[in-house]
Write a structure and sequence with these properties.
Blueprint lengths: L13 H18 L4 H8 L2 H11 L4 H4 L1 H33 L19 H14 L12 H21 L6 H22 L11 H19 L7 H16 L13 H24 L4 H11 L1 H23 L20 H33 L4
Helix pairs in contact: 1-2, 1-3, 1-11, 1-12, 1-13, 1-14, 2-10, 3-9, 3-11, 5-6, 5-7, 7-8, 7-9, 8-9, 10-11, 13-14
Length: 378
């Protein structure tokens, strides 16, 4: 099998960690119902960022030991998905009793959620275990990413192994063919309104994830020759701002043929802009750099808990405006008085509170471990 010419270093890439940190903050801001233009800009590229940074670490060596790669993907994506999906599944009905969910107030489009009956609970449990679906839409709405990255990365590995296994296709050619194939398949699906029925919601996001995973692999291959400077950053930034103004689509369940050429451009330009900023931050030792690396290394906990953390701000907003308690159950945030700047507080709390909880858990574990070590022998 042909090997990529680039040598894969074992040195940790903290700039990519910072990229992930920026990406998760942008996700939280988008979910906090920030001003419309800002949200549109973020959605043109923020989810491709995660798939590109995941693909960045793919090596041709993974194709030589696919079982190890798949096992690590399963442990790193399926098991956390199942763990936290079950957590929100178990507290779902309880959340109605305390007002964190509401049958009256729902999301921005008017939809609401309801307590699970025994039959619906069983159905959702089966969907979670067998299809990585059925999770709580109002508290775990971002959990599609676990399935998306798992499917995209394993599908990429399979296609890469098949293509390079012939011995006639190089590493770069194989990755390029996978990306082009993902675009062609997406165009075919959009034209015929087809769905991949074995993947929940039709698999649109998973195939886009496959494409951007490949972009990450290609970027790693050609990184030394890719120029990144202030003028290019400004060009990328202006482009994604225009894309947001024109309401170009992000990685959603639906799609148009326009997405075939716009989303690859906005997703890639957004990554290049963010990566430039990440490299600037990475060059300067200090608290900001350390904080962004910490956020990037712990995106899982923000992904899982940011919507639940929003409830703390919703309680404050309900009290502030004298709204009825049931509006705490709005998804994802309280929709009244939009434009009052509460999205900033939602964004801060949605990012910080899950990490503070993580630090508290780690502190308790260290304290218990320390007490165990110094306990006198009986």
């Amino acid at each position: 099998m042909n090997q990529p010419s680039a040598t894969y270093s074992q040195k940790r890439n903290t700039a990519i960690s910072i990229c992930k940190g920026i990406a998760i903050i942008l996700m939280v801001i988008g979910h906090a119902e920030a001003p419309g233009l800002l949200t549109c800009i973020i959605y043109t590229f923020h989810m491709p960022l995660f798939f590109i940074t995941a693909g960045y670490f793919f090596s041709a060596r993974h194709a030589e030991n696919p079982w190890d790669f798949c096992t690590r993907r399963f442990k790193g994506l399926y098991l956390p998905f199942l763990k936290w999906s079950l957590f929100f599944f178990l507290i779902h009905n309880l959340c109605f009793n305390v007002g964190l969910l509401s049958e009256t107030y729902g999301n921005w489009s008017g939809g609401v959620t309801h307590p699970y009956s025994w039959h619906e609970a069983g159905s959702r449990l089966m969907q979670m275990i067998t299809g990585m679906a059925g999770y709580d839409e109002f508290h775990a709405g971002a959990f599609w990413f676990f399935r998306g990255l798992l499917v995209a990365s394993i599908l990429f590995l399979i296609l890469y192994r098949v293509l390079t296994g012939t011995g006639r296709i190089s590493h770069t050619q194989a990755v390029a063919l996978i990306c082009l194939g993902a675009l062609a398949f997406t165009a075919f699906r959009i034209t015929g309104n087809y769905k991949i029925h074995v993947i929940p919601n039709g698999g649109m996001r998973e195939i886009w994830g496959l494409f951007f995973f490949g972009i990450g692999v290609l970027y790693r291959k050609f990184e030394p020759s890719i120029r990144e400077n202030l003028w290019l950053f400004l060009l990328y930034f202006i482009f994604i701002c225009i894309a947001g103004k024109l309401h170009f689509s992000g990685m959603n369940h639906r799609g148009t043929l326009q997405d075939i050429w716009t989303l690859p451009l906005t997703g890639t330009a957004g990554f290049l802009a963010v990566h430039y900023v990440a490299k600037l931050l990475d060059r300067h030792e200090g608290r900001l750099r350390d904080m962004m690396i910490f956020i990037g290394d712990n995106t899982l906990y923000i992904l899982v808990f940011h919507i639940l953390a929003f409830k703390a701000v919703s309680i404050l907003k309900v009290w502030h405006y004298g709204l009825e308690w049931g509006k705490v159950g709005c998804h994802m945030v309280v929709h009244d008085f939009q434009g009052d700047g509460y999205w900033i507080l939602y964004s801060i709390v949605g990012t910080a509170l899950p990490l503070l909880g993580l630090l508290a858990v780690r502190y308790v574990r260290r304290s218990r471990s320390s007490r165990t070590r110094i306990a006198p022998q009986s």
